[in-house]
Amino acid sequence: MLFLLFSPTFCHAQASFVNCDWLSDPQFYFTGFSYTGTQAVSNTLVPGQTYTVTAGGWGVSPAGCLYEVIRVYNSAGQIDPYVTTSPVFGSPDQPFPYGNYVDATHTAFTITVASGTPDEVDIIQLLCEVCNSSASYYDAQISIQTPLPPSPPPPPPCGTITINPLTPSTWTMGKTYHVTITGTDFVAPSTSENPTYCQENATRLWVQQGGDSGVDYGGIEYFPDFKVVSPTQITATIKMDASTSLTAGPAILWVGNCDDGCVTETTVPVQIVECDVPNITEIKPNTWFAGKTYGNVVIKGSGFTTSDKAIAACPVTAINITAADNGVVPVSTVNVDSKTKITLTGVAPPASDPTEAASVTAGTAPNTATATAQIEALSATVTDTGKIQDGTVKVKLVAPGGTAGDLTLNLYGENDTYTQDFTSLSPGSQKLDFDLTSVPPDTYSTADGTWNANLSDGSGAQSVNVPSVTLAKEWIYLGLTRFSQYNAPYESQCSGGSQPMYVFDRSSCTYASGQLNAKFISKTQLNGTGMSINYGLLKPIRITNAGKLCKGKLPPGASSLNTFVQVSTVTGSCNTAIAANHSVATFPNPNGKEETPLLLCKDSLNLDQADNTTAYTRVVADKCPACIDGNHIDSFTDNQACDAHGAIGDLGNFYTSTTR
Fold first, then answer.
1. CA-based nearest residue to 447, from 490, 486, 416, 410
2. Is 60 exceeded by the pLDDT of residue 360?
3. How confident is the model at residue 55 (pLDDT cuts 50, 70, 90)?
């Protein structure tokens, strides 16, 4: 800012055209200019404006000025071409126009500063001429200055942020909290290219721990995972996981509207705690049966929180038990006895639980420990049917000790279902014999059943399903069967007369005629093979292929009843060698050429006693025409009688079966 400077100067100049010697030197006094007009500030003038200038408090003593002149000089000492003054005072005969004139009655004039006038300091000069011989003047500085653009208005004030008490205000190390903060004047970040001042100072969250909030901020952690939902609500995720720099102890949550600095901020106290981390080393017992309630289950380990050490953020250690199928295993009470021991009472896996693992979890997330116990479902399973030919199966019963109950097994045949009860069976593997005297003859293929298990804790009987099982082989049970005995008749042991016969050599289709014992012929026709005195082993031609091989070569009088073929081995209708005390003959023909038989060639038979023990084994190899009477099988023997049936009698009656 430039100020008006007054500097009085008295000049004396001799003028030849006016004689004013009688005047003394003037005493000029002046108290300065005053300015009025647009944007007039003291003596600073603005280009493009006109000002009214008033010369106040001036005069010349003793005599006055003949005339007074106003001039405006620029900083170069030249009349400023940008500045003009008006009006012009004085007489027309004034010999030289110095400028604009003022006198005692004309004290005001105007100054116009042209647009575009450069900024500079000018001098307004008031000159007093006295009789052309002397002059006095005053200089006053003015400043011409283009004004700066107006400053923008100050930003509107932003609100004062407040927050309400925080819930929860205690944070546990290792946990993640999803909190809602309420209060006033929260500011969401702006997506505008030209955000407002308040939007530039959006709300932030941070936690301070330690230090002095006014001097030393100590440890600070910012939480970027938050959202300003509205001016009165913030949702935030507070992660107290391994990445945090915060530690257990008091802390301060700050909420502020900040950019480079904060225009408003406030705080709320929080408490950070670190709970004990549990660890499970043992569960005893760790096998639980479904449907049984356990009075005491002891969990051992470390880091358990007892009731006298618990706080809201670190509660008493909880125990939760879940089965593999996500079912909950009920527990009546949980007693945290010490930092190293917990006792559970009333652990009760539901009776419907299958055999599966159970997860035992101690603590509250994230400070938890998990160990595994085993739930055993009560079960009854047929495990082995390899001895079904003797009417024997094996089962496995799984249940707590002291359990007992009746087991019912069902055998499913083509025509019948046989059911048998086995009483008071305890857990474990059991060998069970079906009552062969009661099992109806049939072909059995599957079995199932039910075990009514009574637990020793008095919780009542549980009906345990025995899953259906397919027998290892189909069990063809014949029931009680008579075993007669037959042989290859020995002609030498046959009594009575003889009759004509023919013996063929199959290899050459030649024959010999002769005599054979009539009874021997009859028994050989029945049994299929006989030992003759003169021709060795003979077989009736009707049961060999010699009739086809030697067709047209049979002698006159030869028939299927009196013609035989020499053979080297005793064979049955199955066309295999038969052996004494090994092979049996059955009806219908087991070779299946006549009708569909129940027993087939090579079927292995067990001849069992009523106690399921096997007395003999036999293999089907021949047809027994006499066995048409039912439940009758003929067992081959090496007895050298003419007829074994009459000579040695039956082998006996046996509970007979085969598997296929």
1. 410
2. yes
3. low
State the CB neighbour count (10 A cutoff) for residue 55.
Answer: 21
DSSP one-letter code for 520: H
**Rounded to whole angstroms, how far apart are CA atoms 315 and 451?**
45
Q: Could you please report the per-residue DSSP string of 332-346?
A: SEEEEEETTEEEEE-
Global pTM?
A: 0.57
User: Does the structure show a pLDDT above 50 at 614?
Assistant: yes
Pairing of strands 262-273, 249-258: antiparallel
- From the DSSP assignment, how many helices (H) and strands (E) are in the chain? 4, 46
Residues with Cβ within 8 Å of residue 117, at least 6 apart in sequence: 47, 82, 83, 144
Distance CA 106, CA 55 (A): 9
Provide the b/e sequence for 336-367 (b: ≥16 CB within 10 Å): beebebbebeebbbebebeeeebebbbbbeeb
Contact 436, 393 (CB under 8 A): no
Q: Give which of 86, 68, 89 is closest to 136, Cα–Cα.
A: 68
For the ranges 197-201, 371-375, 420-424, which has the lowest average pLDDT?
A: 197-201
Q: What is the DSSP letter of 568?
A: S
- The SS3 call for residue 549 is helix
Task: Determine the Cα–Cα distance for residues 52 and 40; give it in Å rounded to an integer.
Answer: 10
Least confident of 321-330, 335-344, 522-531: 321-330
Q: Percent of the chain, pLDDT > 70?
A: 84
pLDDT digits (tens, 9 = 90+) for 186-230: 998 888 888 888 888 888 888 888 755 443 344 677 778 889 999
- Measured in degrees and rounded to the nearest 5, phi and psi for residue 448 equal -155, -170
Distance of alpha carbon 536 from alpha carbon 516, whole angstroms:
12
Residues β-bridged to residue 120: 144
| The token pair that represents 87 in the structure block | 């009006």
Residues 6 or more apart in contact with residue 430 via CB below 8 angstroms: 394, 395, 396, 397, 407, 422
Torsions phi, psi for 9 (to 5 deg): -135, 135
Q: Does a cis peptide bond (omega within 30 degrees of 0) precede residue 62? A: yes
Domains of the chain: 9-144 (2.60.40.1930), 162-273 (2.60.40.10), 280-376 (2.60.40.10), 484-659 (no CATH)
Strand partners, 144: 45, 120
What is the 3-state composition of the chain as percent helix, strand, coil, each rounded to the nearest 5? 5, 50, 45
**Each residue's pLDDT tens digit, 650-660:** 999 999 999 99
Question: Phi and psi (nearest 5°) for 515?
Answer: -125, 140
- SS3 for 656? strand
Q: What's the first-to-final CA gap in the chain, in angstroms?
A: 126
β-sheet bridge partners, residue 283: 299
Distance from C-alpha of 349 to C-alpha of 446, rounded to nearest angstrom: 32
Residue 616 has a pLDDT of 98
Looking at residue 371, its pLDDT comes to 95
- 3-class DSSP state for residue 526? helix
